[in-house]
Amino acid sequence: QVQLVESGGGSVQAGGSLRLSCAASAYIYSKYQYCMAWFRQAPGKEREGVAAIWTETDTTYYSDSVKGRFTVSQDSAKNTLFLEMNSLRPDDTYMYYCAARLGMADSWCYPRANLYTSWGQGTQVTVSS
Questions:
Q1: How far apart are CA 90 and CA 102, in angstroms?
Q2: What ranges make up the beta strands (E) of the chain?
Q3: How far is CA 3 from CA 22, 25, 50, 69, in A?
Q4: Which conformational region is residue 10 in: left (phi greater than 0), alpha (psi within -120 to 50 degrees), or beta?
Q5: How far is CA 75 from each of CA 22, 44, 47, 95, 108, rounded to the nearest angstrom?
Q6: Which of 35, 92, 97, 126 would be a feasible disulfide site paired with 109, CB 3.0-4.6 Å?
Q7: Pairing of strands 48-54, 80-85
Q8: pLDDT category, 26, cuts 50, 70, 90?
């Protein structure tokens, strides 16, 4: 129903940077109020929230593990969500997913996986020591 296409994953050394992109259906930014978020998941573990942003005011949320290192942003004109990842560490190695949900207020956007209804296919990020 909602199309989300991710790109930008790859392998980097510790201390390096990557920028993930998520191209979203145009109506997310043009027609409805939405929350956009990034999650990550390792094999055998629960999916965890990384960062989120509201399409209306740019209000953002970050997990404690990435706060100060990762930055979520969006370009509404291009219908694109970004995650800039700096100072990467080996424990940032996960499959990263873009997600979306309807959001009538910025408080709806807190990145809890069971609240989000649309998901991208995932992009692998691997950080070597």
A1: 33
A2: 4-7, 10-13, 18-24, 34-41, 48-54, 60-62, 70-75, 80-85, 94-102, 118-119, 123-128
A3: 10, 5, 20, 28
A4: left
A5: 10, 33, 25, 23, 20
A6: 35
A7: unpaired
A8: confident
Each residue's pLDDT tens digit, 46-102: 999 999 999 988 899 999 999 999 999 999 889 999 999 999 999 999 999 999 999
Structure tokens given for 103: 């959001």
The encoded tokens of residue 63 equal 């997990």
Written as one string, the DSSP assignment of 21-51 is EEEE-HHHHHTS-EEEEEEEE-TTS--EEEE
CB 76 within 8 A of CB 29: yes
- Retrieve residue 113's tokens: 């996986």
Other Cβ atoms closer than 10 A to 81: 31
